[in-house]
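haha ok so turns out i had the wrong file open the whole time. this is the CORRECT one, sorry everyone. sequence first:
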Amino acid sequence: MKLPYPTSEMGDPLRAEVTAQLSADLEYYRPGSVIQNLQIDWSNVCQEGHCTEFLGGRLEEMSDVRVTTASGDLVAEGWIDFVQGGAKLPLFVFWLFLDIVTNDGHSRIKDGVHIPDHIWDRLPTETKQACSVETGYDVRTQKSSPGD
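then structure:
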């Protein structure tokens, strides 16, 4: 299956890393939600402009990212973003906005344009410094508001 742009720019190693990190972040918001057969549906994503290069591929912030079961049932959907303070620093991918799908419909779990506390707390000092100053590597990122 041919992947659409911008997913096609990631390459297999980066896509595997992004998938693993999104699954872990989904687990944070909905403990017990990481089922072995969950998969990321990249088929209808929309590029949102924030880009980096990592693991030989190119990652762009994307909306309309869906999580489905192996049988195609929708579990969650949202907008993904990342923090990466430069080529030698690690990549941290997270849900910027996230809706969980239950029998009762969609429920907004994560909202707000910022780095969540549980991600910020894991960032190395070098990444925080690179992302926290006006002239830094990834200045568009922001630490979360208290309680997010």
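The chain has one domain: 7-113.
again sry for the mixup
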